[in-house]
C-alpha cells in the first residue's frame, strides 16, 4: 500500500529513491470543478509506468489518492494536481529492495498562464533527446534533458522543440507535437518519445473520432518548411492544444483547421 | 550558499528539484581514518558537474561539507559518505528558478561486502545505456537505466555490464571497466560514458605513472572473446579495482598483471 504524502504537511524521507535515482513517475493533472480531468488516462499511464518499473500500485489506491486530493483542495477555479510516485526508501545502491513501500506525493498548484490562441513562438532546443527504448514514453522522475532544454530556452519562446540523435523532431520540453498535413495528421510514435503525453493520446482519439486520419511516425525537420505542412500544434494535459506560429525564423501557418480543435472540450471525457 | 542537510536529522522539502526531475548530482566517497579518500577528485567531479548543470557550488563549501561529515561520523572502520547536491526547491516546471538555493544532503553508510580478489561473475545487461552527450559522464540523480539494470541482474552476478545502442561495451551499472590487452589497456572515453568514475580516472593515472599505456576508445564486445584480451577489470571509488572472471558464459583470464594493481593503495592519494 502506497504511503500518501501531502506536501503542505510533510517533507520526504531523505533516503527516498525518487530523490536518489529518479526512481519513480509523475502526473500533472488539471482539476476542474473538483474533478480530475482525463483521470482514466492519467491513471492508466501511471499504472502502466509503475508496472514497467516494477513499482507496486493498484488502480484503487491511485484513484483514491486523486479523489482525496480533489476533496482536500477545493477551488472555484481550475488548478493543477501533481502526483509523484516513488519506489520509496532504501535498497542496496541501485538495486531496488525486494519489498518496496512506494510513496504517492501530492501537491496543489495554480494554473500556469494560458498561451494565446493565435499561436506561440518556439525554437529548436540545443539539447537533444536520447530516448532509451527501455524508458520510452515513461513520465519518469529522470528529466534532466528537459531541465537543460528549459533552462536554455530563449526568453521570447513559449516552448522549445527537441530532436533525436537522427535529427528528427520528437516533442517539446513539456508538450507533444502534431503536424497538420492537409489530408492527415502526423505525430511521432509513442515508443520513440521521451514522454508519451496523455493529451497527445486524447487528441489522437478526438481527431480519429471526427474522421481525421492520424499517422504515427518519424517527423523530419524538413517537413516543417515544406508546402505540405498546414500547421503545427503542441499539446499537454494542463493547457490543452496550442498552435505554433513560428519555429526559429520559420513562420508557420495557423489556419482554421487548427482553430476547429476545441482545446477546452478535450478536457471533458467520461471516466471510462 | 548550499543548505546542509544531515539525513539522520531531517527529511527533504517535497518540492526539491532533485526529487521532481533528478535535477542534481551525487558522489559516493569511501572514508578511511576520518579522511575522505580521493577527495580532490570527488570534489572536482561534483564542481564540474554543478557547473555544467548551472547549480552554484563553491569548492570551499563542498570541502567544508566533507570535513563536517568526517567529523560527525567517526568510525574505526572504513565507511561510505554519500553526498547529494540538488538545485533546491522550486521553479516553474522544468525551468530552474533564477536564484536557486542548492542543497547538500549528507548520509553515512556501512561499506558493502568487498568482492573476492580472485574475480567476479558478471553478465551483459538487457538494459542498454543511451548516453546523451549533454549529460555524458555526469553522476546525476537521473539513474533509471542503472536501476533497471540492477533490478534485472542475475542472482549469481556481482555486476552487469551495459552496452550502448551500437553494441559497444560502456560500463557496469555501478562501475567502470578496463581491458588489459597485453601491451596496453583500453577503456571507453569519458565523453561516451553515462558516469565517468573517479576511480576510473585514478586508475588511468596510476597505470600511466607506472609506465603502462592506457588508451581511451570504443570497446567492442568481440574484443572480449579474442586472444588479445588478457583480462578485464571493474572499478569504483568504494570497492577499488576487481577482476572479472566471467561474462555470461565467457571465462576470462585473471592473470598476474591484474593482481599487480594494488587496489587498496589506489585510495591513497595526496589531496592536490
The total strand number of chain A stands at: 14
Order of helices and strands of chain A: EHEEHHEEEHEEEEHEHEEEH
Q: Pair with the most extensive interface? A: A-B, 53 and 53 residues
What is the molecular shape of chain A?
A: globular
- What would the average pLDDT of chain A be, to the nearest integer? 94
As for the number of domains of chain A, it is 2
Number of helices of chain A: 7
What is the name of the CATH architecture of the largest domain in chain A? Answer: Alpha-Beta Barrel
Q: Summarize the amount of helix of chain A as a percent range.
A: 10-25%
- Amino- and carboxy-terminal Cα gap of chain A: 24 Å
**CATH domain fold name of the largest domain in chain A:** D-amino Acid Aminotransferase, Chain A, domain 2
CATH class of the largest domain in chain A: Alpha Beta
User: Based on the structure, what is the oligomeric state of the protein chains?
Assistant: homodimer
Strand proportion of chain A: 25-35%
Amino acid at each position: 500500500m502506497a504511503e500518501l504524502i501531502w506536501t503542505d504537511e510533510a517533507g520526504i524521507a531523505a533516503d527516498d529513491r525518487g530523490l536518489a535515482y529518479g526512481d519513480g513517475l509523475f502526473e500533472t493533472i488539471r482539476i476542474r470543478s473538483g474533478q480530475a480531468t482525463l483521470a482514466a488516462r492519467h491513471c492508466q499511464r501511471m499504472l502502466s509506468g509503475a508496472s514497467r518499473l516494477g513499482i507496486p500500485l493498484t488502480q484503487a489506491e491511485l484513484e483514491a489518492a486523486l479523489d482525496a486530493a480533489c476533496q482536500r483542495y477545493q477551488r472555484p477555479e481550475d488548478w493543477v494536481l501533481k502526483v509523484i510516485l516513488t519506489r520509496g526508501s532504501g535498497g542496496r545502491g541501485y538495486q531496488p529492495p525486494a519489498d518496496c513501500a512506494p510513496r504517492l506525493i501530492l501537491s496543489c498548484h495554480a494554473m500556469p498562464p494560458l498561451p494565446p490562441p493565435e499561436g506561440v513562438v518556439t525554437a529548436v532546443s540545443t539539447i537533444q533527446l536520447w530516448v532509451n527504448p527501455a524508458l520510452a514514453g515513461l513520465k519518469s522522475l529522470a528529466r534532466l534533458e528537459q531541465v537543460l532544454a528549459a533552462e536554455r530556452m530563449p526568453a521570447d519562446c513559449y516552448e522549445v522543440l527537441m530532436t533525436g540523435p537522427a535529427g528528427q523532431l520528437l516533442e517539446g520540453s513539456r508538450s507533444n507535437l502534431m503536424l497538420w498535413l492537409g489530408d492527415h495528421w502526423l505525430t511521432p510514435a509513442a515508443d520513440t518519445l521521451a514522454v508519451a503525453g496523455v493529451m497527445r493520446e486524447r487528441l489522437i482519439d478526438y481527431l480519429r473520432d471526427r474522421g481525421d486520419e492520424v499517422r504515427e511516425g518519424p517527423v523530419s525537420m524538413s517537413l516543417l518548411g515544406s508546402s505540405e505542412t498546414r500547421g503545427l500544434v503542441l499539446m499537454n494535459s494542463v493547457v490543452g492544444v496550442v498552435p505554433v506560429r513560428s519555429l526559429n525564423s520559420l513562420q508557420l501557418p495557423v489556419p482554421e483547421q487548427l482553430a476547429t480543435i476545441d482545446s477546452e472540450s478535450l478536457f471533458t471525457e467520461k471516466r471510462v
